[in-house]
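Lab notebook: predicted structure, single chain.

Context: the supervisor wants predicted structures on file for every construct in the current expression panel, including those that have not yet been purified. This is the next one on the list. No modifications to the sequence; it matches the entry in the shared construct table.
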Amino acid sequence: MTPVRALAGVLVALATVVVLIGVAILPFLNPFWFRLEQGRADASGWTGWSTARVTEVTDAVLHDLVIGPPEFAVAVDGVPVLDERERGHMRDVRGVLVGFGVAALVAAGALVAARLRSGGAAWFWRSVAAGALALAGGVVVVGAAFALAFDAAFDVFHRLFFAGGSYSFDPRTERLVQLLPERLWYETAIAFGAVLLVLAGVAARVALQRVRPGPGDAGPAPRRGAAGPTGGGRPS
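Prediction complete. Output recorded below exactly as produced.
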């Protein structure tokens, strides 16, 4: 394998990881998931609001997060729900989501281009499978960390993307963590990991089934006089 082919394989594997994560995020960016989890996490009890009011406010926050503009200025009885620090954190979250969304689209385009360029050669599908399997292994490791020490793992995750101190809120006084209690994030992390494992498993299986010799993967030509597929090393 040439260095160029090796580098292309690594890039295809990385693009596979990014695309799979991007696809796995989509099912959780909808109000129906948050309504389910807010009920389980007793967001009404934390906020002191009715379920209808919790839904109304959460839908407004999600709209600003996913569609924008990222104002996060929803108010209840004329009083803003989120303070400036909470709104700043949500703007940071939107920035991370938008950035990752762009990266996922670029990675998807790169995969399509690599597939067309390679003509479906074996090296391409092996690289896709390698990326999917590596992602599955990473999910198992990270999932174990979250299961054994959720608070510490959650903090490490936030430190990777946000400035220190910008994501710590008091559930006694700040609405953001009352609307989105810790249990909601714990169960969402579990569900997200499960979706990732399924997607990675399906991608790896499909890719391995498609592995076949391509233009750049053919082995050395058989020597003259070698036996053909029907047997017999010499002409009849």
